Model the fold of this input.
Amino acid sequence: QVQLQESGGGSVQAGGSLELSCAYSGYLYSSYSMGWFRQAPGKEREGVAVIDSDSSASYADFVKGRFTISQDNAKNTLYLQMNSLTPEDTAMYYCAHEAWPTNIKTMRPDNWGLGTQVTVSS
Done:
């Protein structure tokens, strides 16, 4: 079982930036995926970015060029750098883990964090 704890959410104006962090603990197999998902009010949860144990990253089309996913294995921390934020990015952001290398299109998380709220005002 992998435990995940997000932080770094908050309120920002359109055009601004935020960096989300996800501290993870527990046993990670040598091959895995870590990802960020989000859910806006009244909408389904959607994938934002995924990175696997080989540091191969993939992104949803709506964040390409604006968001960057990264991980620091020494600190057991996953990051999501978000730039050029728009009100459409307002959502609860969740960290996720899957015990298999995958990508943004196929990730099916085994573990979820509780989420961190991001609010972007116009």
User: Anything to note?
Assistant: The chain has a mean pLDDT of 96. The two ends are 40 Å apart (CA to CA).
